[in-house]
Design goal:
Elements lengths: L17 H6 L12 H14 L2 H14 L4 H14 L2 H14 L4 H14 L2 H14 L4 H14 L2 H14 L4 H13 L3 H14 L4 H14 L2 H14 L4 H13 L3 H14 L3 H10 L11 H13 L33 H10 L4 H18 L2 H6 L1 E6 L5 H14 L4 E12 L2 E11 L4 E13 L2 E8 L1
Parallel strand pairs: 1-5
Antiparallel strand pairs: 2-3, 3-4, 4-5
Length: 462
């Protein structure tokens, strides 16, 4: 399924003093300017009003009058972040900590800015400095945990999230972030518990429901997942990730009309190749109860958008009289012909597309290896398969041994190129493989042949 990782980060928000609150009832002309503090206060006023250019000007004047005004550097740095000038923001935060080496908020916001730049090592260093100055800085623990999680350092991320929760047990975002880690570790009960807590603390944040819905869907608890996606879409009807996920869940509980409706809307808004591959991965074959072949309708909708030059041709509509419940999945809905002429037409309409069949096999092959479904994985190969001097039985034994030693297996394929010559085919792609024991990226080639109208892999070259 389509899972988008959401990490809740905190950026420092100014806490206005009583005198600053009075500014909101004044005009800029009422605020005196001349001393460094007066310029600083007027800069705060303009910043709150959204006049960032004037705020920068006043903070700059405060610094001109008092070159050691650390708060003016700090506040000007925050405005530069809002304006997207990250380099200048870092320069101002750096000046603030030079003047005041115990300025934990300046280290914290500089860390946030380094993280925006992708400088994660410096971000971790600054979060750590902020924590050293203020050991109760829950937000710094949270954001440092986010960096560790993005690096794949899940144990260190858990440690930071646990500390943030210890400091502030009502920190909803940290529970959600820790839930993401537990989900990555396949500890789904703990993930659910953390998302439940996040929702209890902040029931109005739709992102928490989206993540809990993803976990429910991973568990196969599809109706609960749908309930959570409903909550998300009630707040934001254009949340495409939740539309795709709810559509997949609806297909799983055999509510095919609702599934097609969700996919149609999501595809029209944002045709996602990732969602297309997720659908094929999770629905490799049409369900027997899918009489109208909704699966095919969804694939056609995707093809129209993401592969217009290769989209499957849709034949003219044929009235369905008595659809066959035992018909195999085909490119269009099957019909019960009333005479031989119609039967001949049907054979033409239901002819499969070889390239699409090969693509489906490759996706099924990847999905079965990721999930540990050895039976399906073996079924992707021909009985005379040979690779690295091994026959099929030896190959499956070898792969089983590899899988038993591996955790968190992830495979991504890009630039899939398929060539077909009658009953032989070749699929070449870039494979990015990641597990607890191996990380690798390279070009892989699968050589296939058609056996009893099914494509099978008979050689694998890396």
């Amino acid at each position: 399924m389509n899972k988008k990782l959401l990490l809740i980060s905190l950026s420092l928000i100014f806490l206005l003093s009583a005198s600053s609150i009075i500014f909101a009832q004044q005009t800029a002309s009422d605020i005196p300017a001349g001393t460094a503090e007066e310029y600083f206060n007027r800069g705060n006023f303009f910043r709150k009003q959204g006049n960032l250019t004037q705020a920068v000007s006043d903070y700059t004047n405060a610094i001109r009058v008092n070159s050691r005004h650390a708060k003016a550097y700090y506040n000007r740095g925050n405005v530069y972040v809002k304006q997207g000038d990250l380099a200048q923001a870092i320069a101002d935060y750096t000046k603030a900590v030079e003047i005041n080496p115990d300025y934990s908020e300046a280290y914290y916001n500089r860390a946030n800015t380094y993280e925006k730049q992708g400088n994660v090592a410096q971000a971790i260093s600054d979060y750590t400095k902020a924590i050293k100055i203020n050991p109760k800085y829950a937000a710094a623990y949270c954001n440092r945990g986010n960096v560790y999680q993005n690096q794949g350092n899940l144990q260190q991320a858990l440690s930071d999230y646990n500390k943030a929760i210890e400091i502030n047990p009502n920190f909803a975002g940290v529970y959600a972030n820790r839930g993401n880690v537990y989900q990555s570790q396949n500890n789904l009960p703990k993930a659910i518990a953390d998302f439940n807590k996040a929702i209890e603390l902040n029931p109005n944040f739709a992102g928490f429901y989206a993540h809990r819905g993803n976990v429910y869907q991973s568990q196969g608890n599809l109706q609960q997942a749908i309930n959570d996606y409903n909550k998300v879409l009630g707040e934001n009807p254009n949340d495409n990730a939740s539309l795709y996920n709810r559509g997949l869940a609806y297909y799983g509980i055999e509510q095919y009309g609702k599934s097609l409706e969700d996919y149609t809307v999501a595809i029209s808004q944002n045709p996602s190749k990732e969602a297309y591959e997720n659908f094929i991965k999770n629905v490799p074959e049409k369900k027997a109860s899918d009489i109208k072949n909704t699966r095919n309708e969804i694939l056609l909708a995707f093809e129209d958008k993401i592969n217009p030059e290769k989209k499957m041709a849709r034949p003219a509509a044929v009235a369905v009289t008595e659809p066959s419940a035992t018909a195999a999945p085909v490119a269009v809905a099957s019909v019960a012909p009333e005479n031989q002429a119609q039967a001949d037409d049907t054979q033409t309409e239901t002819k499969s597309i070889p390239e699409e069949d090969v693509r489906n096999l490759v996706i099924k092959w990847v999905a079965s290896w990721e999930s540990g479904d050895v039976k399906t994985y073996r079924g992707c190969y021909s009985s005379d398969f040979q690779s690295k001097g091994m026959n099929l039985n030896n190959w499956i034994t070898y792969k089983n041994n590899v899988r038993q030693k591996s955790k968190n297996i992830s495979i991504k394929i890009d630039d899939l190129q398929i060539s077909i010559d009658e009953n032989n085919a070749m699929a070449r792609f870039t494979q990015t493989y990641s597990s607890s024991i191996l990380k690798d990226k390279g070009t892989k080639t699968l050589e296939l042949k058609k056996i009893k109208n099914e494509w099978k892999i008979y050689r694998e070259i890396m």
